[in-house]
Amino acid sequence: MADEERFGEFVVVRRHAPRVAELVLDRPKAMNAVSSAMAEALSQACAALADDATVSVTVLTSTHDRAFCVGADLKERNSLTDAELVRQRPHARAAYTGVLDLPMPTVAAVHGFALGGGFELALACDLIVADETAVVGLPEVSVGVIPGGGGTQLLPRRVGAARAAELIFTARRLPGEEAARLGLVDQLVPAGEARTEALALAGRIAANSPVGLRAAKRALRLGHGLDLRAGLEVEDAAWRSVAFSGDRAEGVAAFNEKRSPDWPGE
Fold first, then answer.
1. Out of 67, 72, 179, 198, which one is annotated catalytic?
2. Fewer beta carbons below 10 Å: N end or C end of the chain?
3. Across residues 112-119, what is the average pLDDT?
4. Among this protein's residues, is 212 annotated catalytic?
5. Among the options 45, 98, 122, 140, which is catalytic?
6. Predicted local distance difference test score (pLDDT) of residue 264
7. Helix 36-50 vs helix 82-100: angle between axes, to the nearest 10 degrees?
8. Is 120 a catalytic residue?
9. 235 is catalytic
């Protein structure tokens, strides 16, 4: 049985053994539309996970049977004054950057609709597992705004500038099969299997060194977009941060003793 902790009304964190956390979007009556309250809860949950050294991988999931997340709560947005929208913006950004900045590897498990801010939450993860029911897209220009949860920056990093421009400018929705073919998602699985497969992938990742995983993610993120020489300096700094760690000593010892490592996570 996984340990469970609730953040506000709409976000749950479940901790699975060994070293896997599940960050659950739990506003099913609104298809997980991101309201102000949900954004606040999501940023709080991410802050707690970021400080938890016992977590090696986080999986982002949904309790709704037909949607991962449909994006911003437009009913709430429609009721906000301009001043209220300005005050809400930092809280909305904190939710998306909270997922993006998690220091451990992250996997999104996408089924059904993942649109606008919902797809941006998935894009903020390192890997996306989607099932055949998935429908993804960034349709913000169709309602007079732009992707504001990282979409204009994260999507080009996945599929290239021209492809991202086409998808954002047309506000097109893509079924799971096409999304996988174009590289918007990393793995396509049968309907109903996204969460199961994402947790299984997380388990395989979590079998590795917690220290190594975080350092590898840091090198990947910080080195992206740099020229090769600068990127290699980022990599060297990350290597130095783990070279004398307890995990490194245990990993080498376990290899030589032909046994599974017992990671200290230090």
1. 72
2. N
3. 98
4. no
5. 140
6. 94
7. 30
8. yes
9. no
